[in-house]
Amino acid sequence: MTTAPAGPFLDGALRARLARLDTAALSDAMDSLRAAPCVLPGIAARVPGTVAFGPAFTVRYRTLEEDGAFHNAANYIDDVPPGAVVVVDNGGTGACTNWGSLLTSVALRRGVAGTVVHGAVRDVRETREAGYPLFSSAVTMVSGKNRVVLDRTGTALDIAGTVVDPGDLVFADDNGALRIPAGLVEEVVRRAEAVERTERRIREAALEGTRLDEARARFGYARPWEDEGHDDAH
């Protein structure tokens, strides 16, 4: 049985704000809240320059117990809602793949926002040519057919110590991937925007000749999320 992401509800305004951010600012915002771990360790971009964000559609695999029959790895892609990010957990193994060009093609047709795999992917060239946001902890050419099968979807995943619940916001870019609990998204976005404003002011001051340590002290580098954006002048 599949379960659609529960949230957060990303309206057009919030999506536009997220599109201007990156994982670095969002990670700093999560640090400021002293929240549970948010980084999905070991995840790397396989299509450089792409960004994916949306509510998590979670997928968990398990190792196949051989019975002599043919077993497709999993059939779930047609149940993924548009705008969701598929988050796949195969224990981080690189022994066999959990994503390839066929899934990429269907995901693009369905308007899926991207895929993050705690495990291996293949057909990377085709996915790059398609421009689909794909992130993983490994790459291999070995098929998952007759090696792994779908355990379940719509379940909490433990990605190397970071728990991803269905409906959590997942955001991935060239820096890696992270998750934000659904109930924290708006506050994390607000703080991440403040972080970016603070760093922009520090950068501008430094490029104008101010010592970096002085610029950091002037513009609140120690607590950048407290900037409210009332005055951009320095």
TrEMBL record:
It comes from the Bacteria. One of its GO terms (biological process) is methylation. Gene3D superfamilies: 1.20.5.3070, Ribonuclease E inhibitor RraA/RraA-like (3.50.30.40). It catalyses: 4-hydroxy-4-methyl-2-oxoglutarate = 2 pyruvate; oxaloacetate + H(+) = pyruvate + CO2. Homotrimer. Belongs to the class II aldolase/RraA-like family. Catalyzes the aldol cleavage of 4-hydroxy-4-methyl-2-oxoglutarate (HMG) into 2 molecules of pyruvate. Also contains a secondary oxaloacetate (OAA) decarboxylase activity due to the common pyruvate enolate transition state formed following C-C bond cleavage in the retro-aldol and decarboxylation reactions. This is Putative 4-hydroxy-4-methyl-2-oxoglutarate aldolase. It comes from Streptomyces fodineus.
